[in-house]
C-alpha cells in the first residue's frame, strides 16, 4: 500500500487508488464534475487538478492518475487554484447564466464550485454556443445549452442501466449529448441521470418549475414500489410530496432508484380516498366515520369469527400487525398477504428469503433465474446481477426470453427443466464457487416449483461455507411486494393461499390496500377496504375506510432479503383519512375488544415484544431449515408467466401517477406524444 | 459539425423506406469480412470505421455521388458488428469524412485552417463561389458539394483542397477554376501540386545539400 503525502500529511492509501481518492482519504475536498464513484473514470472535465511531485511541473487531473509510492500531492497551492479557476472559466464560457430559472439552482455542483473557483466576470466576448433541447422521454427534461459534457449520463446508461441509448454526437465545440435519434430512453433507471447531472442540463420533467430545494422538508423514507426497500428521501412542501430521491445505502440500493420510485409520488394526491364511503343499494355513497364503523360493527356482530384480512403490497408492518390483532380479537386467524393467489410453503422463512442478500448477489459466479424478470420485479437487484455478470458471472434463465440488459443463456420456457437442467448449465452450477438461484413469483405460482427448486439446494450445494470463513446461501426467492416479508413474518400466509381463504368464505373481509386480488370468490363477503387509493379493491368494497399512503405514516418495512428498515412520515393523510393502525384501534372499540395500544409508541412496543425481530433495524436472521415438501411432478413444457405485465403500473399509487401512466404508454406500448410547443 | 449535421433531411420514415433494405454487395461483404478479420475475436467493433467507409462508397456507387450514411445504413453497419446503434451513430457523427447528408459527385473540401488561409484559401473559395458552389450545399446539377474543413495535413502545399479521394495543392484562383471546369466537363485533372513542383519539395529547387543533387559531395571539410 503506497504512502503519500497530501498537503504535508502522510497517509497510506490502498494500492490502485487514484490521487483523488487519496486526497479524499486525507479529508481534502477535490472539486469534480465528471468523476463519479460508481462510474468509470473519464477525466474530461479537468476540475480536479492538483499538483503532484515528482512529476511534470503542471497540474494533474487527480481523478485519472493512480497513486505512486512517495508522491507528494498539493491540493491548495496558488498554482492549483489558478488552474481550477482557468478550467472553471472555460466551463462557464458556454454555460448560460440562467440559474434563477434553472431547476438545479440551489443543488447544482457548478453553482457551488463557481463560488470557490469562479472569476465573477467573463472575458469571453465571442458568440456563445447554444444547443437545441433533446427529447429523452417522459421523465428527463433537457436544457442542453447548460451541458458541460461531463458524460456522466452516457457512462451511467452504458455501465449501470445497460441501455446504450445516450451518447455524444458531433465533436469539439459541436459535441452534443443526446439519446439515440432523440427517442425516449427505455430504461427503468433513466431518472438517475437527473441526479447524476452536475448541472441543470438534465432535470426531472414532472418536477420542472415545481419547487426550490431550500423550501422542501426532507424526510427519510423507504420505497414501497417493489420488494427491494430502496432508501429514499421524500421532499415535501406543505402537504404535498414534491419528489422522491434515493438515499445512499450500499447494502440495498447503492445510490440509485428506479423511475417508479421517483415518480409514483405524482400519484399521491390523485385518486385519493379522503373520506369514508358506504355502499347503499349497490351504490357507494359518502359517509361519516361513525356511519362507516356502524355498518361494519353490525356485520361483525353477525359474522362472529368468520373474518379474514387480505394485506396489500404496499403495507407497513404496523398496519398489518394492528389488523392482525383486530382479526384475532374477533377469533379468526384468516390472514393472507399473497393477493395474487400464490400458495408456497412459508413454514421456514429462510426458504422464502433472498438469502444471498442484495449486495451479496454481486459476488455470485453462476446464477440461475427461474421464472423471474428481475429487471421489472426488482430493478436494483437486476443492476447487481449485471455487476456480477460484468465481473464474469454466467446467468441462465428459465422462462420466456426477455432483455435483462446483460447476456442470459435461456434454457427454455419450460418449468419442468428445473428437475432436469441441461448438462452445460448443471455442470457450471456444480463447479461454481458461489452458485445462486433466484426463483420468482412466475415460477412459485406453479405447483411443485418450490419443491423442485429446493431440491436444487442439495444438488448444487447452494448453502455452504464460503472461502472467507462466512456462509454462502445461494437460494433466493424474489418477492415483488414491499409488504411481503413483513407480512410473512407476521403470519399473513394461509396454507393454500387465497384459495383457502375463499373456501373459508369469510362473512367479513378486510382488504388492506389489496388491489391485485381476484375478489370474485368473495362475492358473498362483506368487504371493507382500508386503503388510500380508489382502485380495484375500493371499487368492489361495501365500506371504504380511507387510510394513509406510505408517505403519510411512520412504518417498518422488511425487504426481500429480510432487512428491517424504518420509514418516516413526510406529510399528513388528506381529508378524513387516518393512519391505518388507528382505524383498527377505533374499530376494535366498537366490536368490544379494544386493542391494547392507544398510540403509535404503544403499538410499536407491543409489536416489538411479540416479534422481537422487528425491534432492530437491519438484517433479520432466519434459520435455514427448508421444509420437506412433497414433490409434485411438473408437467412437461409448463410455460411461465412473469407476474408483472406493466412495470410502471403495478400498484394503485403508480396507476394514479400521470407520469408513470405516460411512461407506460410511451416506453412499453410505443405510443407517441407530441411535445407541446413552448 | 453544426453544418455537418443535416437539418433538412427527409423524415426518418422516408429514409427507412429508401434505405431500410440496404445490404453490402457480395464484394463489399467479402471486404468487410477481411476487415473484421484484422481484429481479435470479440473486438470486431473496431472495424466500424472501415465498414462505414465501405457502406458510404457503396451508396456513392449506387447514386453516382460520393455517398453518404443515412440512419438505416448506420444501423445496418452497427447490427453487422453487433454494437448498439448509439455507439455507431457517435462514430459516424464524429468524423467529417462520413457524410450525414447526400453530397454531389465531387465533394470539394477546402481547407481553411491558418496556413492555407495565409497562403490564399480565400481565393480558392472565391473560385468555388464563382462556379456557383455554396458552403454546405450541393449544386443543383448534383455535381459539386462544397465544405470548408479544418487542416488536412498538407500545409507545405497550402492552399489545398481535397476533392473526393485526391488532394489538389498549391492552388490559385486560376488553377482552382481550371480544376472545377475540368471536373464539370467530366475530365480528371491530375492531382497533386498545381505548380511546377515535385510533391512537397521546395519550389525553387533544393535548398539543403544542393551539391548532392547531381553527384556525391563531401561536406566534411565545411564542418566547423
If you had to describe this structure to a student in words, what would you say it looks like?
The complex is a heterodimer of chains A (678) and B (224). The mean pLDDT of chain A is 92. Chain A is an alpha/beta fold and 678 residues long. In chain A, the strands form eight sheets. A seven-stranded mixed β-sheet of chain A has the order 14-13-26-25-24-15-16, sandwiched between helices. In chain A, 26% of the residues lie in helices and 18% in strands. In chain A, 54% of the residues are buried. In chain A, strand 25 (526-531), helix 16 and strand 26 (543-546) form a beta-alpha-beta unit. With 224 residues, chain B is an alpha/beta fold. Chain B has two domains: 12-94, no CATH class; 106-193, Glutaredoxin (3-Layer(aba) Sandwich), CATH 3.40.30. Chain B is built from eight helices and five strands. Chain B has a five-stranded mixed β-sheet with strand order 2-1-3-4-5, with helices on one face. In chain B, strand 3 (161-163) and strand 4 form a beta hairpin. In chain B, helix 3 (48-63) packs across helix 4 (71-81) and helix 7 runs parallel beside helix 8. Residues 1-6 of chain B have low confidence and may be disordered. The interface between A and B is medium-sized, with 12 and 14 residues.
Features:
heterodimer; A: alpha/beta; 5-stranded mixed sheet; globular; B: about 220 residues; Glutaredoxin; about 40% helix
Net shape of chain B: globular
Distance between the termini of chain B: 54 Å
Instruction: Tell me which CATH architecture of the largest domain in chain B applies here.
Output: 3-Layer(aba) Sandwich
N to C succession of SSEs of chain B: HHHHHEHHEEEHE
Helix content of chain B: 25-40%
The pair of chains with the biggest contact is:
A-B, 12 and 14 residues
CA gyration radius of chain B, whole angstroms: 22 Å
Q: Which percent range describes the beta-strand content of chain A?
A: 15-25%
> What structural class results from the helix and strand content of chain A?
alpha/beta
Mean pLDDT of chain A: 92
Unreliable sequence segments of chain B: 1-6
Reported for the largest beta sheet of chain B, the result is:
5 strands, mixed
CATH topology heading of the largest domain in chain B? Glutaredoxin
Strand order of the largest sheet of chain B: 2-1-3-4-5
Amino acid at each position: 500500500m503506497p504512502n503519500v503525502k497530501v498537503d504535508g500529511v502522510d497517509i497510506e492509501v490502498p494500492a490502485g487508488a487514484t490521487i483523488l481518492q487519496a486526497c479524499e482519504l486525507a479529508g481534502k475536498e477535490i472539486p469534480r464534475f465528471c468523476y463519479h464513484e460508481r462510474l468509470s473514470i473519464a477525466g474530461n472535465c479537468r476540475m480536479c487538478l492538483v499538483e503532484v511531485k515528482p512529476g511534470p511541473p503542471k497540474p494533474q487531473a487527480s481523478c485519472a492518475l493512480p497513486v505512486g509510492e512517495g508522491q507528494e500531492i498539493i491540493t491548495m497551492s496558488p498554482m492549483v487554484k489558478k488552474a481550477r479557476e482557468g478550467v472553471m472559466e472555460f466551463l462557464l464560457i458556454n454555460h448560460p447564466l440562467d440559474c434563477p430559472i434553472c431547476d438545479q439552482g440551489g443543488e447544482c455542483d457548478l453553482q457551488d464550485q463557481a463560488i470557490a473557483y469562479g472569476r465573477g466576470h467573463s472575458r469571453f466576448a465571442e458568440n456563445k454556443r447554444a444547443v437545441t433541447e433533446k427529447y429523452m422521454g417522459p421523465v428527463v427534461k433537457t436544457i442542453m445549452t447548460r451541458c458541460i459534457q461531463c458524460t456522466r449520463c452516457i457512462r451511467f446508461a452504458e455501465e449501470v442501466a445497460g441501455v446504450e441509448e445516450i451518447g455524444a454526437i458531433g465533436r469539439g465545440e459541436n459535441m452534443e449529448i443526446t439519446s439515440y435519434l432523440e427517442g425516449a430512453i427505455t430504461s427503468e433507471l433513466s431518472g438517475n441521470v437527473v441526479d447524476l447531472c452536475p448541472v441543470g442540463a438534465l432535470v426531472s420533467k414532472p418536477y420542472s418549475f415545481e419547487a426550490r430545494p431550500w423550501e422542501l422538508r426532507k424526510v427519510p423514507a423507504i420505497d414501497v414500489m417493489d420488494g427491494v426497500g430502496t432508501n429514499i428521501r421524500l421532499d415535501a412542501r406543505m402537504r404535498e410530496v414534491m419528489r422522491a430521491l434515493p438515499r445512499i445505502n450500499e447494502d440495498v440500493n447503492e445510490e440509485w432508484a428506479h423511475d417508479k420510485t421517483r415518480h409514483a409520488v405524482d400519484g399521491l394526491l390523485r385518486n385519493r380516498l379522503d373520506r369514508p364511503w358506504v355502499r347503499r343499494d349497490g351504490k357507494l355513497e359518502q359517509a361519516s366515520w361513525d356511519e362507516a364503523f356502524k355498518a361494519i360493527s353490525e356485520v361483525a356482530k353477525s359474522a362472529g369469527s368468520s373474518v379474514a384480512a387480505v394485506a396489500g403490497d404496499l403495507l407497513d408492518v404496523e398496519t398489518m400487525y394492528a389488523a392482525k390483532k383486530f382479526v384475532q380479537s374477533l377469533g379468526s386467524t384468516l390472514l393472507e398477504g399473497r393477493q395474487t393467489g400464490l400458495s408456497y410453503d412459508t413454514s421456514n422463512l429462510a426458504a422464502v428469503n433472498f438469502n444471498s442478500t442484495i449486495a451479496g448477489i454481486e459476488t455470485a459466479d453462476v446464477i440461475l433465474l427461474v421464472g423471474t424478470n428481475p429487471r421489472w420485479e426488482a430493478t436494483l437487484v437486476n443492476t447487481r446481477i449485471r455487476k456480477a455478470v460484468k465481473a464474469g458471472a454466467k446467468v441462465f434463465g428459465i422462462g420466456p426470453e426477455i432483455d435483462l440488459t446483460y447476456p442470459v443463456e435461456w434454457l427454455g420456457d419450460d418449468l419442468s427443466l428445473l428437475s432436469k437442467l441441461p448438462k452445460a448449465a448443471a455442470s457450471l452450477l456444480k463447479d461454481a464457487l458461489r452458485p445462486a438461484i433466484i426463483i420468482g413469483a412466475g415460477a412459485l405460482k406453479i405447483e411443485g416449483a418450490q419443491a423442485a427448486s429446493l431440491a436444487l439446494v442439495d444438488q448444487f450445494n447452494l448453502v455452504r461455507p464460503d472461502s472467507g470463513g462466512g456462509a454462502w446461501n445461494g437460494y433466493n426467492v424474489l418477492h415483488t411486494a414491499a409488504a411481503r416479508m413483513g407480512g410473512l413474518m407476521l403470519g399473513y400466509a394461509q396454507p393454500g393461499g387465497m384459495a383457502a381463504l375463499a373456501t373459508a368464505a369469510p362473512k367479513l373481509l378486510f382488504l388492506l390496500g389489496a388491489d391485485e386480488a381476484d375478489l370474485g370468490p368473495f362475492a358473498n363477503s362483506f368487504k371493507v377496504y382500508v386503503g388510500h387509493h380508489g382502485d380495484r379493491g375500493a371499487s368492489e368494497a361495501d365500506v371504504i375506510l380511507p387510510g394513509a399512503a406510505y408517505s403519510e405514516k411512520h412504518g417498518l418495512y422488511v425487504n426481500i432479503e429480510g432487512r428491517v428498515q424504518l420509514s418516516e412520515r413526510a406529510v399528513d393523510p388528506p381529508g378524513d383519512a387516518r393512519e391505518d393502525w388507528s382505524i383498527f384501534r377505533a374499530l376494535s372499540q366498537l366490536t368490544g375488544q379494544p386493542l391494547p395500544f392507544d398510540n403509535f409508541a404503544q403499538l410499536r412496543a407491543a409489536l416489538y415484544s411479540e416479534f422481537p425481530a422487528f425491534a432492530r433495524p437491519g438484517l433479520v436472521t432466519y434459520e435455514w431449515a427448508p421444509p420437506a415438501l412433497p414433490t409434485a411432478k411438473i408437467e412437461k413444457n409448463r410455460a411461465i408467466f412473469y407476474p408483472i405485465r406493466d412495470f410502471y403500473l403495478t400498484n394503485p399509487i403508480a396507476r394514479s401517477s400521470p407520469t408513470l401512466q405516460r411512461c407506460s404508454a410511451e416506453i412499453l406500448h410505443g405510443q407517441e406524444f407530441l411535445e407541446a410547443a413552448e | 459539425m453544426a453544418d455537418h449535421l443535416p437539418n433538412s433531411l427527409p423524415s426518418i420514415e422516408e429514409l427507412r423506406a429508401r434505405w431500410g433494405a440496404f445490404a453490402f454487395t457480395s464484394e463489399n461483404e467479402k471486404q468487410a469480412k477481411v476487415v473484421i478479420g484484422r481484429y481479435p475475436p470479440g473486438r470486431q467493433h473496431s472495424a466500424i470505421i472501415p465498414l462505414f467507409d465501405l457502406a458510404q462508397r457503396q451508396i456513392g456507387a449506387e447514386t453516382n455521388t460520393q455517398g453518404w450514411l443515412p440512419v438505416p445504413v448506420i444501423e445496418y453497419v452497427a447490427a453487422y458488428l453487433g454494437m448498439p446503434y448509439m455507439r455507431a451513430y457517435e462514430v459516424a457523427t464524429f468524423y467529417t469524412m462520413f457524410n450525414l447528408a447526400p453530397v454531389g459527385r465531387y465533394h470539394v473540401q477546402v481547407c481553411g485552417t491558418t496556413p492555407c488561409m495565409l497562403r490564399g484559401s480565400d481565393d480558392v473559395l472565391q473560385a468555388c463561389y464563382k462556379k456557383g458552389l455554396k458552403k454546405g450545399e450541393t449544386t443543383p446539377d448534383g455535381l459539386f458539394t462544397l465544405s470548408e474543413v479544418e487542416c488536412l495535413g498538407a500545409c507545405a502545399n497550402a492552399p489545398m483542397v481535397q476533392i473526393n479521394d485526391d488532394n489538389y495543392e498549391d492552388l490559385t484562383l486560376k488553377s482552382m477554376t481550371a480544376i472545377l471546369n475540368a471536373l464539370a466537363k467530366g475530365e480528371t485533372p491530375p492531382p497533386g501540386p498545381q505548380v511546377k513542383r515535385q510533391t512537397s519539395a521546395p519550389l525553387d529547387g533544393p535548398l539543403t545539400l544542393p551539391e548532392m543533387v547531381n553527384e556525391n559531395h563531401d561536406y566534411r571539410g565545411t564542418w566547423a
